[in-house]
Specification:
The complex is a heterodimer of chains A (304) and B (258). Chain A has 304 residues and is of the alpha/beta class. Chain A contains 10 helices and 14 strands. Chain A has 2 domains: 3-215, Rossmann fold (3-Layer(aba) Sandwich); 227-303, Alpha-Beta Plaits. Chain A has a 6-stranded mixed sheet with strand order 6-7-8-3-9-10, with helices on both faces. Chain B is globular, with a radius of gyration of 19 Å. Chain B is built from 9 helices and 10 strands. In chain B, the strands form 2 sheets. Chain B has a 6-stranded mixed sheet. A 4-stranded antiparallel sheet of chain B has the order 2-1-4-5. Chain B is of the alpha/beta class and 258 residues long. Chain B has a domain at 88-154. The longest helix of chain B is centred in the C-terminal third of the chain and has 16 residues, at 169-184. The chains are: A alpha/beta (304), B alpha/beta (258).
Chain lengths: 304, 258
């Protein structure tokens, strides 16, 4: 079996809202596949369909070679799902939650301990503590342990890093990387573009549509223009001034600089002359490589 | 001449024997965009509650908008705005009703509220949404409106708690442009966020770990000092509990409530 997920033309409507619109993609075995997009893009709806919790209105989807409608009972045994909202039993202890999930799936913690040891060992010292009393980072580790305890073939993580600090986020992605050696396929969603680079393949999703699917590096390479960073102490004035420059195509604030594309894909002295005339004399301009977010912006502009 | 709108000297806040804020010292200036970063449980929320007049320091000197954080908490509250991602507007009220409500709470006159409604709707190109309830608004519009409402009374300082979490990249940039514009009007923006690319937009940032401020400078200088390309890398180097101490890290100190 090659493809863990094979989706063609999936659509789902809620009333007049098209939550998913003609979604097609495939996920290979042992891949970390990321769905990157803002809130309301349709990520959770798609994950609910993949986990057999919801049926699509149109299209076909096969997960682990099985039909999501007819084979859902068998399929669920092979999927580990970590929803976006913490969904463990808050009034059970860490240990009780883990035992409960193992039992539900007809296994024991001992049997698959090796798979979770890396993650669970961080919270094991607190195994007698109620799940509701854990910190955010610890809840996340417990939820991941519970989603893995039955050794699923497919792990589905819905926004696991939202609201988590940068240190814990980075640790979490390291943990996912290590799961690869156990031949577990992972699909993960996130609203944060910088996490795309930690995936093998990503789909950029917006308003229920996929804007692009590829390896993250290739998505960056897909940026169609030369991109420049322009810096000045007066950021706000710089953005507005750059937008009025006749050769400017796009100008977006990006952290401490402005990312700019020009109609002729180049910077010449007329830009500096113009900026000095407008009272900005401290600019530093450099060509830069587009990131995932630059490409996302470009694709959003094309669809509008 | 830079005006100090927040002055914090030797701030300590204890809960029983636990020291949530351990001798903090910093200033924030008028019209500055100040990023306030730290790991979960580092003590950020405690500081923000003190700066917004909701909690009193155990010791130290704290002044916000010229008012004392021990005795003048009501005046502080009148001079600040607050917006967070989780809750900011009443979902079952319309756009217009929310503006009237917040205007009323901040003691704006009826005629001024009316003026502000017209201004806001025009600026945000929101006219068609005037009588729609918040629950029906797309997230991006909701966030922009929430921000506008937080500065409705022209406060000296606005506290923003992860203002752009989950919004699309275009809306996010429009939002930051609103922040820049507000700063240009002289209002101070005090931003907390877990997302380090957001930190790069700020004029200066501080990073908290285990109740202490462990770094405070412009994003540019911090990247130079720690020899990194991004603030995220700076953060990972220094915000991990114990990372600045010679002894091994204390496990799970991040679980402490901030």
């Amino acid at each position: 079996m090659q493809n863990v997920i094979e989706s063609s033309g999936i659509s789902k409507n809620f009333g007049t809202t098209k939550a998913l619109n003609d979604i097609s993609f495939s996920v290979n075995e042992s891949e970390v596949f990321g769905f990157i997009g803002p809130d309301g893009a349709g990520k959770t709806t798609l994950f609910r369909i993949i986990t057999t919790l919801m049926l699509p209105d149109e299209g076909e989807i096969k997960v682990l070679g099985m039909n999501c409608t007819t084979d859902y009972k068998e399929l669920r045994k092979n999927i580990g799902y970590m929803p976006g909202r913490f969904s463990l039993y808050q009034d059970l202890t860490v240990e009780e939650n883990l035992n409960f999930y193992a039992t539900v799936f007809g296994t024991t913690v001992e049997e698959n301990y090796e798979l979770i040891s890396d993650i669970y060992s961080h919270i094991e010292p607190f195994k007698k503590r109620l799940a509701g009393k854990l910190s955010g980072g610890m809840k996340q580790k417990l939820a991941l342990s519970c989603a893995l305890i039955h050794k699923p073939k497919l792990l589905v993580l819905d926004e696991p890093t939202t609201g988590v600090d940068a240190v814990s986020r980075s640790e979490f992605w390291d943990m996912l990387g290590k799961l690869r050696q156990h031949n577990i396929t992972i699909i993960v969603s996130t609203p944060y573009m910088d996490e795309a680079m930690r995936c093998d393949k990503v789909a950029l999703i917006q308003d229920g549509k996929i804007l692009a699917i590829d390896a993250p590096q290739k998505i960056r390479d897909g940026f169609s223009r030369k991109l420049f960073t322009v810096k000045s102490v007066e950021k706000y004035k710089l953005i507005n001034t750059l937008r009025k420059y006749p050769m400017t195509l796009t100008a977006y604030p990006f952290g401490d600089s402005v990312h700019v594309t020009f109609i002729n894909d180049m910077v010449d002295n007329s830009l500096f002359d113009y900026l000095i005339k407008e009272g900005i004399s401290d600019v530093v301009v450099q060509e830069t490589k587009a990131g995932i977010e630059d490409r996302f912006l470009e694709l959003m502009n094309k669809t509008e | 001449m830079k005006i100090q709108v927040i002055t914090v000297k030797n701030l300590v806040k204890k809960f029983g024997s636990f020291v949530a804020n351990d001798n903090l010292n910093f200033e924030v200036f008028g019209g500055e965009i100040f990023g306030f970063l730290g790991a979960n449980g580092a003590g950020k929320t405690t500081t923000i509650r003190i700066l917004s007049g909701l909690s009193k320091p155990t010791s130290g000197e704290v002044k916000v908008a010229g008012f004392d954080a021990y005795r003048q908490t009501e005046q502080i509250k009148k001079n600040i705005g607050y917006m967070c991602q989780k809750f900011s507007l009443y979902e079952d009220l319309t756009v217009k009703e929310n503006i009237i409500l917040y205007g009323g709470i901040y003691g704006l006159t009826k005629s001024l509220i009316k003026e502000r409604i017209a201004e806001l709707l025009a600026k945000l190109r929101f006219q068609e949404y005037e009588n729609r309830i918040i629950a029906d608004l797309p997230l991006g519009l909701r966030q922009k409106l929430a921000f506008s409402v937080a500065v409705l009374h022209e406060p000296k300082i606005v506290f923003l708690d992860e203002p752009t979490g989950g919004v699309d990249p275009i809306t996010r940039r429009q939002f930051w442009e609103m922040i820049y514009e507000t700063a240009a009007r002289g209002i101070t923006l005090f931003v907390t966020t877990h997302y380090m690319d957001e930190a790069e937009y700020c004029d200066r940032i501080s990073i908290m770990s285990e109740g202490k401020i462990v770094a405070l400078d412009t994003p540019e200088n911090l990247k130079k000092q720690y020899n990194t390309a991004t603030i995220e890398e700076v953060f990972i180097k220094i915000a991990r509990p114990g990372s600045l101490h010679p002894h091994p890290p204390v496990p799970f100190s991040q679980e402490r409530r901030g």
